[in-house]
């Protein structure tokens, strides 16, 4: 599948170099506040300050790069810009307990092999607040930096550039227990969490990008309350466990690789209260969970108006799909390679195409719901026909199967007690 190929491309990524800066030793003395005017040497001003001080950038354009090598606050007044003049990384935070806020950062280099960035963070307990980052390759890059915060920032890319020429908006690499909250991301490549545990990705808005969030080899992370619109993929989880996807809104992940929420060989997944609308595939499962004792829970999600509500690839060893609403999807479910829903427990979901009845009025269908697709079965056996997915020709295949039950394929999934009604919790 194309979305999976996108994820595997990342698997070959080279680890970024740790941040190692040999700076000038901070002078002794009590902390103080220093305001630097545009056009003055910001780095020299910073070096004159004791640890714990505050450096304030006045309005106008300040020339970078700047390296923060001691605990302190770096703040911008309205109109303050730190510009890298088109070379390298604009701001490097190499010391712990640093706060950077209210500053526009722009004009970095665009060399992918050098990981040119707007902001590189290589230390713990760093707070980035209300920054605007644009005209750079990577936006904000955490390298082995934990217990930090990226909050209320704007990372702006280029809608005209191909994804391969864009850098990631926010990257967490071997960085644990960070909070990424309330940020706005436009037209970048990915927001990635790699080899990083215990992070919270909360209340962000990502549009026009490739992966709104991509987790790989990253356990015990939470992605909650985000709005991911018009990207290629909403959230894709690979080789990870303890992942919680809660209350996210994923709309318009379209194209051959379009996926709302995708999972590959992951365990202990909890997916609750998400809204997945108008995606190529609402949910994509590839061998998740991939252990016999693994778990995966999908509950109280709205999966609506997607080309395929649920797409299955590879064996699924267990899990449950309970209390969700599958509404007005072009196909409720589809499979790749002839697999089915395996050992998943599927019950009490609402299916808008359910044709059964509820004679006793208890709110549950009296006959099981079964999802079948002769067209999907044909495509899974002959992948070259995927080009015709959504076409009138394949729609006629399913109409034919409905008219002649002897040609119906085996069910992809069965819900023994479907819900007649569904209200969003």
Defining traits:
mainly beta, 3 domains, 14-stranded parallel beta sheet, 13-stranded parallel beta sheet, 4 helices, 38% strand, elongated, disordered N terminus
Summarize the entry for a quick read.
This protein has 425 residues and is mainly beta.
Protein architecture, described:
By secondary structure, the chain is mainly beta. Helix content is 8%, strand content 38%. It has three domains: 1-9 and 65-231; 252-372 and 418-425, no CATH class; 373-409, no CATH class. The strands form four sheets. The protein has a 14-stranded parallel β-sheet. A 13-stranded parallel β-sheet has the order 3-6-9-12-15-18-21-24-27-30-33-36-39, with no helix packed on it. It is elongated and about 80 Å long.
Count of beta strands: 41
Radius of gyration: 25 Å
Structural classification: mainly beta
Integer average pLDDT: 89
* Chain oligomer state: single chain
Q: Helical segment tally?
A: 4
Number of domains: 3
Order of strands, main sheet, comes to 1-2-5-8-11-14-17-20-23-26-29-32-35-38
Question: Which spans have pLDDT < 50 for at least 5 consecutive residues?
Answer: 1-5, 7-11, 377-382, 390-401
Shape: elongated
Query: Distance N terminus to C terminus?
Result: 33 Å
Beta-strand content bin:
35-45%
Summarize the biggest pleated sheet.
14 strands, parallel
The helix content, as a percent range, equals: under 10%
């Amino acid at each position: 599948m194309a979305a999976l190929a996108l994820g595997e491309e990342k698997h070959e990524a080279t680890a970024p170099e740790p941040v190692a800066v040999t700076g000038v030793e901070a002078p002794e003395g009590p902390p103080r506040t220093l305001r630097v005017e545009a056009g003055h040497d910001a780095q020299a001003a910073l070096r004159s300050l004791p640890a714990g001080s505050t450096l304030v950038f006045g309005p106008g354009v300040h020339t970078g790069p700047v390296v923060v090598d001691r605990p302190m606050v770096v703040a911008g007044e309205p109109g303050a810009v730190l510009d890298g003049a088109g070379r390298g990384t604009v701001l490097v935070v190499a010391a712990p307990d640093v706060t950077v806020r209210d500053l526009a950062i722009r004009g970095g280099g665009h060399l992918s092999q050098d990981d040119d960035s707007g902001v590189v963070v290589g230390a713990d307990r760093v707070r980035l607040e209300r920054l605007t980052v644009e005209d750079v390759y990577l936006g904000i890059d955490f390298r082995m930096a934990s217990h930090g915060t990226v909050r209320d920032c704007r990372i702006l890319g280029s809608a005209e550039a191909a994804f391969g020429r864009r850098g990631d908006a926010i990257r967490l690499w071997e960085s644990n227990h960070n909070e990424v909250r309330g940020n706005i991301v436009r037209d970048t490549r990915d927001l990635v969490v790699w080899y990083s545990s215990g992070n919270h990705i909360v209340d962000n808005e990502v549009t026009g990008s490739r992966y709104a969030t991509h987790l790989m080899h990253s356990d015990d992370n939470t992605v909650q309350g985000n709005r991911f619109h018009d990207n290629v993929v909403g959230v894709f989880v690979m080789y990870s466990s303890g992942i919680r996807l809660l209350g996210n809104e994923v709309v318009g992940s379209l194209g051959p690789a379009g996926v709302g929420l995708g999972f590959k060989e992951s365990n202990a997944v909890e997916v609750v209260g998400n809204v997945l609308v108008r995606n190529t595939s609402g949910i994509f499962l590839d061998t998740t969970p991939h252990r016999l004792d693994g778990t995966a829970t999908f509950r109280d999600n709205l999966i609506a108006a997607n080309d395929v509500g649920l797409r299955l690839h590879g064996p699924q060893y267990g899990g449950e799909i309970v209390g969700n609403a599958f509404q007005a999807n072009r196909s409720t479910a589809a499979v790749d390679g002839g697999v089915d829903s395996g050992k998943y427990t599927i019950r009490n979901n609402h299916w808008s195409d359910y044709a059964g009845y509820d004679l006793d009025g208890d709110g549950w269908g009296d006959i099981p719901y079964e999802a079948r697709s002769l067209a999907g079965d044909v495509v899974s056996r002959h992948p070259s026909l995927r080009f015709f997915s959504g076409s009138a020709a394949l729609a006629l295949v399913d109409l034919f199967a409905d008219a002649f039950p002897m040609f119906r394929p085996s069910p992809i999934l069965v819900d023994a007690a479907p819900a007649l009604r569904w209200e969003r919790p």
